[in-house]
Task: structure prediction
Amino acid sequence: MRLEKEQIEQHNSKLAAKHKRAFDFISEDIPQVESIIHKLQQFQIAIPSWALGTGGTRFGRFSGKGEPGNLEQKIEDVGLLHALNRSSGAISLHIPWDIPKDAEQTKALAESFGLQFDAVNSNTFQDQAEQELSYKYGSLHHVDPKVRKQAVQHNIDVINHGIALGSKALTVWLADGSSFPGQLNFREAFQNTLESLKEIYAHLPEDWKLFVEYKAFEPYFYSMTIGDWGQSLLLASKLGPKAYTLVDLGHHLPNENIEQIVSLLLMEGKLGGFHFNDSKYADDDLTAGSIKPYQLFLIFNELVEGMDARGMDHATGLGWMIDASHNLKDPLVDLLQSVEAIMIAYAQALLVDRNALKEAQRNNDIVKAQQILQDAFRTDLRAVVAEARLRDGAALDPIGLFNELAVREQLIKERGNNTVATGL
Result:
């Protein structure tokens, strides 16, 4: 299914007067509104191919209807999202869930929707049907060198798929760890992981990046071999200048100060990218901004400050991607909500008066610093984000248009009730 330009224009015409009133009202008090809109127009958030179907828990998965049954349909779904918001211009593939049969045809299809391919992701946390050796006890850290070799080769294969598609980064997330004391030698596991990553790193093209993702717990509960940002940073530093830490917002212990982590990784030039989601208790993989919107804003506040300090382009300096599990809501609607929340938090961070905040910090004026941040966070910038969409030819109300056009019902007609998307 493709959205026509006329459908979006008709939708926008019905909302134009109301939007103009809201935008004119808020823009009167924002001198830099045009600069913010320009940056919003440049900012793109990649959609993961595995998040286009219904997710689940370890207790069950209740599949939706009209899910994308192959990679081509997944690209079509991301194309729908991008047509609706013009902020979802990239797709991130997880191999071997989504292996292109013909890379050139896959690229051409993506380009027809205005999409590029973001980082490719390897999978050594599951055993595949044709796999010779099991990852039950780990992959890159495994005590058996033959298992490590198999896992390394898989990552090399993923890089090759990415090269064919025009990707520029590989994301490695390991489920490697232990559930019981004594199960694992921590030093040997770390060294094995480092040596395995060195082999993968050696196969990276010169213009590629390697993102090393970390997670505090799950699937293992006593130790994770890359369990926090320090271990990821240590690996990335030892690997070389093309290796970076990747931050998933759900991969931290409760109440951890993620914004401070972001600031320090940027300071060291080792922050590579983000996986956006939200959580109440652990790695809940909920809609971005649905539980802790102020934390999302504070993270973006540090991102904007830190990237500006290093002279980095906001849109291209880091990898931006959603990583959520849509267990109850329509995945496409959930993704639209996440993108909207991310864009609002980014816009609010752009609103912060950096000079005034710096002065308050130098004077130890805690009250003033708090006011500066909270004033930006409490400013309703939905109309500014909508104006950026409007200027790019997207929908003023993406979810409203999605429902108005009965997009899910159309997808069910095309694909049926029983298609199940690959992924978690």
